[in-house]
Specification:
- The chain has 187 residues and is mostly helical.
- It has two domains: 78 residues, no CATH class; 109 residues.
- Helix 3 runs parallel beside helix 5 and helix 6 packs parallel to helix 7.
- The longest helix is centred in the middle third of the chain and has 42 residues.
- The termini are far apart.
Length: 187
């Protein structure tokens, strides 16, 4: 196989991977349904531009008014307090898409969900740090001739260090999201 084949294949995969809509979706033209689905997922209005790009090769121009009407309907399902809590608990980013009349209740519960995620994260981080400390202590007491045990403990320590780093990174993300919603609620 030639290099041209691989380059062409990569380009096709890149186009397919980036498309927000299929050819059938573009040709169907049910922009209200597309907007509603995007609203339910909490996508910002800029998602429409991605759909335009996806449909340009099929000579289809999406209808923004129908899309926006559907998206507004979908946002009413997305911007519920229960969904806000769940998104916060799952540490999902919020794109400031909720209408003013739903925003405060959504953000209040989103913040509570983030608080819950932070508590869970801190518990897991404490537990991982304690385990890491124990393993490091065990390693320090091992006879240098115990290669098998040393290698096993070293592997366990590396895995725990990775877990600690991941949890610390998640903690920072949660804190950043909490700060973001504080600033959104001040307006």
């Amino acid at each position: 196989m030639t290099i041209k084949f691989w380059v062409a294949s990569a380009m096709v995969l890149n186009l397919v991977g980036c498309a927000t809509l299929s050819k059938e979706d573009c040709l169907k033209g049910d922009w209200a349904s597309v907007g509603q689905a995007d609203g339910r997922q909490g996508y910002p209005v800029t998602r429409f531009q991605e759909h335009e790009k996806a449909c340009v090769e099929y000579q289809v121009r999406p209808n923004f008014e129908a899309y926006q009407a559907g998206r507004n309907e979908g946002l009413r399902e997305f911007c519920t307090p229960d969904n806000g809590y769940e998104l916060g608990r799952q540490v999902k980013a919020y794109e400031d898409v909720c209408p003013a009349e739903l925003k405060d209740a959504f953000l209040g519960q989103y913040g509570r969900g983030l608080d819950s995620a932070l508590r869970t994260n801190e518990e897991q981080l404490d537990e991982a740090e304690v385990k890491l400390s124990r393993k490091e202590r065990q390693l320090s007491y091992l006879d240098p001739k115990q290669d098998k045990e040393r290698n096993q403990l070293t592997d366990e320590i590396k895995a725990l260090e990775s877990t600690v780093n991941s949890l610390q990174s998640s903690r920072l993300t949660i804190i950043e999201l909490r700060e973001k919603i504080r600033s959104l609620r001040e307006f």
